[in-house]
Amino acid sequence: MTANDTTAAVRREPEMPQVGVRGTAIEANELGRRYGDVVAVESVTFTVAQGEFFALLGPNGAGKTTTLHMLTTLVKPTSGSASVMGHDVVTQAAAVRRTLGMVFQEPALDDRLTAWENLEIHAVLYGVQRRDRRAAIEHALEWASLEDAGRRRVRNFSGGMKRRLELARALMHGPRVLFLDEPTIGLDPQGRRHLWERIAALREGGMTVMMTTHNLPEAEACDRVAIIDNGLLVAIGEPAELVRQHALGADKAEDEADLEDVFIALTGRQLRDEVATARDRMVSFAKRGGEHTR
Prior knowledge:
This protein has 294 residues and is an alpha/beta fold. It contains 11 helices and 10 strands. Helix 4 (115-125) runs parallel beside helix 6.
């Protein structure tokens, strides 16, 4: 199935950039977020072109997820500005949400419902017309290779099945920008390969993709990589360029150095322990059976 078949899951396809024309899809200008005296993101400035595959790397607690949450309107910045497809993330938040799809680090599916029901709720929330919903859901399930599992409850899905369902759901409304927060965490090699094949097909259709990841070999496949540490960008560029600039001091021959050497050179070898957030505690509570309705 082609990338065009993916966006055809609804009758409202996104406007992809013309061949040879690469406008700006994402722009952050001195973007920052503080929680009282705690600085989650000090100041980050970067742009992502339409159709680009962009990775944001950093140690635990460096500000990756907070940056992603500001760009996707989940968290309001306390300084600076940002836009997605020309829409300001604060003053035009609704327009930003219509242009993007999001796959979270933790599964964001209701596992008490079936795959079909999860997709149907998303279709309603994003304004897919009633007459188009059945076809949209069927296309999404087919795209995710879950046609035979549509009426099964998500709680019985494997991690790979949940990830495919989340990606299919994120694409139902025809977004122009896709945000992925640690998309392959917990997946086996087959699941990772299937996911990247799907993302590659989307990119061929002009989709802009921004992701966070700790899997550095995955990041090496991106067009550009940014490394954030202590809430500040410490490097940005093409993977090969970053290796040439920052990995020459690694204990390897130049042609053997990679992004891991760059990452260690710029962020150090010290282990980073990240305190659980309120959302982390809530997710953990639910996983332990905290809901009365489970």
